[in-house]
Design goal:
The protein is of the alpha/beta class. The protein has one domain (about 5-240): Alpha-Beta Barrel (TIM Barrel). It has helices at about 5, 20-30, 40-45, 55-65, 85-90, 105-120, 140-150, 165-175, 190-195, 205-225, 235-240, and strands spanning about 15, 20, 35-40, 75, 95-100, 125-130, 155-160, 180, 200. Strands 1-9-8-7-6-5-4-3-2 form a 9-stranded parallel β-sheet. Strand 4 (about 75), helix 5 and strand 5 form a beta-alpha-beta unit. Helix 5 packs parallel to helix 6 (about 105-120) and helix 6 packs parallel to helix 7 (about 140-150). The protein starts with a helix and ends with a helix.
């Protein structure tokens, strides 16, 4: 078992902050996180690209390469991905990849997983299905796809939008792989998710969107004369 795979413990989940540049990764490492993931939305948007169109792969590879020196484990969000992209991520130091089916052909996605594992067996392949992202909670289709991806050699499964406790418990019981869910503010707590047997909780684009909101809020506060929090990281700290 690889060090990254070992972090996926049902009932004691890996909390994975998703980052978009070196600075966001470094503050996560300093906060005590041993692993980070990239966010495809954050990487795409910070480079002036739309998410969901498989355009941010080269920027993601460059970011993973830059993060290697931080000493943390890195999982790359490759959107739909490709074998070549996954092999390149592994070559520049990535510990894992996330590949999504976008509710396309499950057999084709399973072939991608199988081909990636054949080329880079130690790369942790997190197989995402969008049945709860693009459909309204199709649990039967979710289980069908996840079993297919497990049979193809995936190391973990990811179902963003999976939030109902009964559905989470059903996936944990039916699929013999670590389950990754997306943290939803106002939804189930980390403790609740752990109690259901979840092995990985991703923050997705949450941190990136929070940073955008903070940028706009502070600029507006200065314009209006409102108080601005004084405990922000200083210039020297960030530059260092």
């Amino acid at each position: 078992m690889t060090p990254f795979a070992a972090l996926h413990r049902p009932g004691d989940p890996l909390i994975l902050p998703n980052v978009w540049d070196v600075a966001s990764a470094k503050v996560s490492v300093r906060a005590g996180f041993a692993a980070v993931g990239t966010t495809s939305l954050g990487v795409a948007a910070s480079n002036g690209l739309p998410d969901g169109e498989d355009l941010s792969g080269p920027d993601t590879v460059r970011l993973v390469h830059r993060l290697e020196r931080l000493g943390c484990l890195v999982s790359a969000d490759l959107e739909r991905g490709s074998v070549d992209l996954a092999v390149t991520v592994a070559a520049v130091g990535g510990a894992g990849v996330n590949v999504e089916d976008g509710m396309g052909d499950a057999a084709a996605h399973a072939r991608l997983i199988r081909d990636v594992k054949r080329e880079v067996p130690d790369l942790f392949v997190n197989a995402r299905t969008d049945t709860h992202w693009l459909r309204t909670g199709d649990l039967a289709e979710t289980l069908r796809r996840l079993r297919h991806y497990a049979d193809a050699g995936a190391d973990g499964v990811f179902v963003p939008g999976l939030t109902a406790p009964a559905d989470i418990a059903a996936v944990v019981a039916a699929v013999p792989l670590p389950l990754n869910v997306l943290y939803v503010p106002g939804g189930l707590s980390t403790a609740d998710l752990a109690g259901l047997g979840v092995a990985r909780i991703s923050l997705g684009s949450l941190l990136f969107r929070a940073a955008l909101a903070a940028t706009a809020d502070i600029a507006a506060a200065v314009r209006s004369g409102a108080a601005v929090r004084a405990d922000l990281p200083g210039y020297q700290e960030v530059n260092g």
